TrEMBL record:
Start and end residues of each stretch annotated as Disordered: 117-136
Subcellular location(s) of the protein: Endoplasmic reticulum membrane
EC code(s) of this entry: 2.7.8.8
Upper classification of the organism: Eukaryota, Viridiplantae, Streptophyta, Embryophyta, Tracheophyta
Identification of the protein by name: CDP-diacylglycerol--serine O-phosphatidyltransferase
Domain of life: Eukaryota
Membrane topology of this protein: Multi-pass membrane protein
Record keywords, A-Z: Endoplasmic reticulum, Lipid biosynthesis, Lipid metabolism, Membrane, Phospholipid biosynthesis, Phospholipid metabolism, Transferase, Transmembrane, Transmembrane helix
């Protein structure tokens, strides 16, 4: 939770921010020149800490912080923590107090009311809409208040009327004329609809509030439905599971040829008189190229760390190389894998995604309600901005903080690549063509699930409490990934006859041994440093 604030009056307050005081860098001169210092906020909600202010002296109490063109603006800094500066404060200087407590507390002046609004926004208090929705005031915005009030009884009555109409409860003779298969199918879809309606109304809110908390409660319900459906599919045999897919799309249940992208890796095909660069042309203008770029843009917006993104990019190409003896779809040409995938599609998606991250990271988030917009264009922009983040946290992963954090971040990468691999193995085992809408629906659902999952997992890593648990979306994501993997293992038994090449076994064994030795050496080094400090 956020650190409390001391409220002085209706206009001013003081934010108490736990921090770690670091000594002045050895390279800085002692001639009175200002030197950058770190104020490392403690707690999972304070991820921005690296050199965001400039101090005259360290660790002077009180400390006067100077703001100028060489530093980050005060408004943007405190905007990361969800507070607003006092009225009239801009670039210049201001005083703050650093307490003698353990840990020390950095006291920053802020505008009263802004912190309480951020607390409501973070914890989803629907009794008063968050600042992102209604400008951070104490009352509902008149134009949007209706959307933030519970309408559970009204929805229940409307849903009951829809059930009466869909089930034919008042006309049993007409309902009895339907076939048993049709009745079962309609009953299953109605059961799912009732469950999703319940989740939208009554499920706990997540840490996300845009465009509306109910949207993410609905996504939570969809994730549960998908997990339950996968569990049902896991208990079927392979042939029955393939035929079961016909109930969703009648054209499924038919064996499909797998396309191999590496059958002809020549860049120039002289015998083709229509297009001598036919291989490059077909690869560049494949419909999956656009999906590839958009997918990496979405990953960049979610993960917000360029190092992890490139680890995932190169890692998945290694996964394709590892399993190319099992799936013909992974048999790609060298120029397709290295140049087109990594250096063009992945790079462009990561570049565009990181530019999007920097754009939202540099914005000042001071929301004004829809009714208070002065013009029609302002109201339109405010309505569209409801689909943008209410506030932006630049997630910090710090994979080299220690061996445990390295393993935790590596685990995230492994789960990411497993979910991507499951896409191809599920298509192969269940005979689902790449252009079938089920593939697109699954990818969209996973993208919606991954957005709160990444936020929850990052908060879990930043949480300093000794006993903690992952969020609901983290748990669901891991459960879905495991069940998908079990389906691939069960239904893929006997389908893959070619053994893994010996050089691949040696390569991955070497990688595993190197990783274990590296982590053990790292842990032993930290252990020795700890005991040297104790002595």
């Amino acid at each position: 939770m956020y650190t409390p604030i001391d409220r002085h009056n209706d206009e001013t307050a003081t934010l108490r921010l736990p921090c770690l005081l670091l000594p002045r860098p050895a390279s800085s001169s002692s001639s009175g020149l200002r030197s950058p210092i770190d104020r490392r906020p403690a707690g999972r909600n304070f991820n921005l800490w690296r050199q965001f202010l400039t101090a005259e002296s360290v660790p002077a109490r009180p400390t006067r912080f100077l703001l100028g063109p060489e530093t980050v603006p005060y408004r943007v800094c405190l905007g990361r923590f969800g507070v607003l500066p006092p009225t009239g404060v801009g670039c210049g200087s201001f005083s703050c107090q650093i307490s003698q407590s353990a840990p020390p507390v950095l006291r920053l002046p802020c505008r009263a009311g802004s912190m309480e609004a951020k607390q409501r926004a973070r914890h989803g208090d629907e009794r008063r809409p968050p600042a992102a929705a209604d400008g951070g005031g104490e009352e509902y915005d008149p134009w949007t208040a209706w959307f933030y009030k519970p309408h559970t009884i009204s929805v229940l009555l409307v849903g009951a009327c829809l059930l009466i109409w869909a089930s034919g409860a008042l006309d049993p003779e007409a309902a009895s004329s339907q076939s048993s298969a049709t009745s079962i199918k309609r009953g299953v879809w109605s059961m799912i609809a009732v469950f999703l309606a319940y989740c939208t109304l009554q499920a706990p809110s997540t840490i996300l509030i845009r465009p509306h908390p109910a949207v993410w409660r609905l996504v939570h319900g969809l994730a549960v439905v998908y997990l339950v459906a996968l569990t049902f599919l896991l208990f079927q045999n392979r042939d029955d599971a393939r035929q079961f897919m016909k109930h969703i799309y009648p054209d499924l249940g038919v064996e499909l040829p797998e396309r191999s992208y590496g059958a002809d890796c020549r860049l120039y095909v002289p015998e083709n008189h229509k297009n001598k660069f036919i291989n490059i042309y077909e690869t560049l203008f494949d419909e999956f190229v656009v999906a590839h770029v958009l997918g990496w843009w979405g990953k960049a917006v979610m993960i917000r760390n360029q190092l992890l993104l490139w680890v995932l990019s190169v890692g998945f190409e290694l996964m394709e190389l590892t399993f190319r003896h099992m799936l013909p779809n992974f048999n790609e040409c060298w120029w397709d894998s290295i140049i087109l995938d990594i250096l063009i599609c992945n790079w462009f998606g990561i570049w565009a995604g990181m530019h999007t991250v920097r754009y939202f990271d540099g914005k000042t988030y001071e929301w004004v309600g829809l009714s208070r917009q002065p013009s029609i264009m302002g109201k339109v922009k405010r309505s569209l901005s409801q689909f943008t983040p209410a506030q932006w946290d630049k997630d910090q992963w710090y994979p080299f903080m220690g061996p445990l954090r390295f393993v935790q971040v590596l685990f995230l990468c492994v789960v990411f690549m497993t979910v991507e691999l499951n896409t191809f193995f599920l298509k192969f085992c269940l005979w689902i063509p790449p252009r079938n809408p089920l593939v697109v629906y699954r990818l969209i659902l996973w993208w919606l699930i991954a957005i709160p999952t990444i936020r929850e997992y990052n908060s879990y890593l930043q949480d300093s409490k000794p006993v903690k648990k992952v969020g609901a979306f983290c748990w669901l994501s891991l459960a879905i990934c495991i069940v998908e993997l079990l389906i691939c293992m069960k239904f893929g038994h006997g389908l893959f006859h070619d053994p893994m090449p010996t050089w691949l076994i040696i390569f991955w064994s070497s990688v595993g041994v190197t990783l274990v030795v590296f982590l053990l050496a790292w842990s032993w080094r930290n252990h020795l440093k700890y005991w040297r400090k104790r002595l």
